[in-house]
Design a protein that fits this description.
23% helix; seven-stranded parallel beta sheet; alpha/beta
């Protein structure tokens, strides 16, 4: 009996891998959890399992830089596998659902129970978003912030914690405490040697005041919101402070959510040459009146708004990988990289995406997930999760 060279082979698809500069027909083979080979033709007889993806788009597994995946840990967090794998997302980054007092169950029990690779930013507040439903936000009492404890816990968890998150929202922190909260979050990032993610939508203080705290590699999440103090001035021009932040390497993250991305603001920014550096969902369990989109829909929406598909895929794969410092592991299907891939049907038709104020974005192409590969094994295919062994 001949031993197969590969565990899984995707054959006949068009590989779109911005990190490698590939947008062409390629077969992709996986072995022992990593990408083993990429070539124009790979013999199916060499693989234990072959999936014909002719006519479909193959990309690296998508990376959602901002979601809420502490399933069971707070009431608005989603089931990661159901939401992520069904959208071609193989890596989800939890954006502050937990703080230093309550993240251990996330790390030890919730995240390991799922197939999706799950990473985290710790909230600057000790218990994260646990009190949001009853208090509206986590920083009404500034005593929940402990800079040293938060920084130390981030430092103790390399590979799991990638930075600190703070919500600059009128319901989360009072305007008279907002600068103090920003200073504390900045100090946590500096002491832990990581990065700072700031929710800027609905900020109680001027956006330029928030951006002053952000440096290269830090993340302005919900950057394209339409609430007061958004990125545009009264003439719908990008504010100079936003341009300066971009120039010094601040990441402008979409984090759509349903209430934090305005079609008109995004369109104006695109017309002025500022596209989202990273596309993310802020996926959560929404109230009934809110529409929250998954990653495949947001890539499709941004493409409909004028982003070339290569750029939209890069903003969902190679760029967030670089933001996390994981570009040698994820975000590409180069041989030796982790075996995470997505396969999409490029469905043609008439599609409509909406924002929270009723603005519509129409398009003629949507990426519908055909399959998701996680650690070299088929994890989701044609509408259902697939049983997998240990990764």
């Amino acid at each position: 009996m001949t031993t197969a060279n590969y565990d899984l082979l995707l054959t006949g698809g068009t590989l779109l891998d911005p990190a490698q500069g590939i947008n062409d027909r390629r077969d992709v083979a996986f072995k022992d959890g990593v990408v083993a080979a990429v070539a124009e033709r790979i013999d199916a007889a060499q693989s234990a399992m072959t999936v014909d993806v002719s006519g479909k788009l193959v990309t690296p597994g998508l990376i959602d830089l901002h979601g809420h995946f502490y399933h069971g840990g707070n009431p608005t967090s989603v089931n990661p596998d159901v939401i992520c794998l069904s959208s071609g997302t193989t890596t989800g980054v939890d954006a502050g659902s937990a703080g230093f007092l309550n993240y251990q169950a996330m790390r030890d029990y919730v995240f390991p129970a799922h197939r999706t690779r799950l990473l985290a930013f710790l909230h600057v507040g000790a218990v994260g978003l646990a009190v949001n439903r009853v208090l509206g936000g986590g920083l009404h009492d500034m005593r929940v912030i402990d800079v040293d404890e938060t920084a130390e816990h981030i430092k103790q968890n390399p590979g799991f914690c990638f930075g600190v998150k703070v919500r600059m929202h009128v319901n989360a922190v009072a305007y008279w405490n907002a600068h103090e909260a920003m200073r504390a979050a900045r100090e946590v990032a500096d002491k832990s040697g990581t990065r700072l993610m700031v929710h800027v939508s609905g900020t109680p203080i001027p956006l330029p005041d928030v951006l002053e705290f952000l440096g290269p590699g830090d993340i302005s999440t919900h950057a394209f919101n339409g609430h007061p103090e958004h990125m545009l001035d009264r003439n719908m021009k990008i504010r100079p402070e936003v341009k300066a932040a971009v120039d010094r390497g601040v990441v402008m993250d979409l984090a759509h959510a349903g209430v934090h991305c305005d079609v008109e603001v995004t369109r104006a920014a695109l017309e002025q040459g500022l596209a989202p550096h990273t596309i993310s969902t802020d996926i959560h369990v929404p109230p009934p009146e809110r529409t929250v989109y998954q990653m495949n829909d947001l890539v499709s929406k941004m493409h409909a708004m004028g982003m070339p598909l290569d750029d939209a895929i890069a903003a969902s794969t190679s760029t967030p990988a670089k933001v996390l410092g994981l570009e040698d592991t994820i975000g590409s299907l180069a041989p030796g990289m982790c075996g995470d891939a997505a396969v999409f049907d490029q469905r043609e038709g008439h599609f409509v995406w909406m924002d929270s104020v009723g603005n519509l974005q129409r398009g003629t192409m949507r990426l519908d997930t055909f399959a998701a590969v996680r650690a070299g094994q088929m994890a989701w295919r044609e509408g259902q999760l697939v049983e997998m062994g240990n990764c």
